[in-house]
Amino acid sequence: MATPAVTAATISAESRNAPNSPERVFETVRKREEALSHLLMTFVSTGLLFMVFPGTFLGVWNLLQISGRESAASVSQAWLQAHGHAQVFGWVGSFILGIGFYSIPKLRDGANSYLRAAWVCWAMWAAGAAIRWAANIYLWEWRVLLPASATLELAAFAIFFREVSQHRPDPEGKGRLEPWILVVASASMGLLLVLLTNLAACFYVALRGGTPAFPHVFDQRYLALVAWGFLVPFVWGFSAKWMPVFLGLKPFRPRILQAAVVLNLTGIALTVCGAGGAGVWFFVAGSGLAVMALRMFEPAVNEAKIRGVHKSFPLFVRMAYVWLLVAAVLGVAAAGWDTSGGIWGASRHALTVGFVAVMILSVGQRVLPAFAGMRLLWSTKLMVAGLTLVSLGCVMRVSCEVLAYQRYVTWAWSVLPSSALCELAGLTVFAINILGTFVLEPSHAHKQPVMAGMPLKLS
Ligand code: HEM
Asked: Cα of 260 to ligand 1 centre, how many Å?
């Protein structure tokens, strides 16, 4: 039998098909990048769904009822808590898990099992948050469903934690963790603590409670843990990572940020132990130090990186930090003067909507299109419209909640429904813009260099 001639073409075809050839490696990385973007888009779309329907629509409904009756006490606590849970876990939690899985991928070995674990985590997390909402609203078999939902959420987080904790900053795994990662790690520990507390409380109300709502005093302390132990440090950590580049600021001051985290933790410990009157001062001090550490209000030394987003992006990010300070100061006022829940409510809203939501709307529209296969944001006009509506609604809500609930002036009750509709419109516009980006904007991933799940160019 004649031996086939070995030509240059067959050599190059063979070398292209060799397992370690640049073409094969490139193709493998490209496919994994696509799989990760797909995963991220699913987490983000799930989060948006929770944000709009079980979260914001229910929040608006609750506020309309409160304003109509001119009393917060007359509304179902289970419904108020269903709204809060859908926003914090369904929306913010899904975003954080999705971005976490996307940013810290194990691409060398075990990429398939990593992706499988991430999909299982998504299913359990989404099911847990949805079951909790349904149990609180419809009361069907809530004594079983409440602990089941909390167990699912904790198990989903355990999967996430196991996967991302295997990530090492360098191939030997000996490098020191960057300071911003430590802040995000402290926020992750906060989330773990929140989920454990939630599980214990769900079992408690399932066995002893008359309704699925957590008892009021416990709920207030639990909310402090959620807000200051989980949401706030997450935003600080990601601000430390991204803001020096995005806003063109000088590098952040790691020591001062660490001091801010320690003060914040002290505030949480005091609040959880029942000394909330002292704890609120630590939140003010911690927030002030965080702003200093991140140089949020110092002049930029480089041009802000606003390619692809609206030019108001740096303004809204800075405004979010003003809301953080407002929330902390309102906490002090609430500890001193609140007689109705209105100052506490205003402080919480300044934090959840003014700080967390404005930050997610700003940074989300900056980074998510790139993470979702190097797309461009669908509309920068929708971006500024959404942020303006949410900010306007938040100013109306925070000011009028204090005035109305505390019965300082009666006209403030009539402003609250408009504030809710304004925020609903802003958040819906944000959801439309992100979904429009995923569905209508083409992916440019094939033109971009890729690196272990994180696009090389985020400028
Ligand atoms: C249109 C936007 C929103 C409206 C109309 C709204 C409305 C409300 C209302 C009426 C309450 C009851 C307490 C009070 O009277 O202040 C409440 C509580 C709460 N909201 Fe919102 N909210 C909105 C957005 C958000 C967002 C974006 C988040 C989180 C990211 C959030 C998280 C919470 C939490 C954690 C609670 C406490 C629930 C509890 O008592 O356990 N809300 N909200």
From this structure: 26
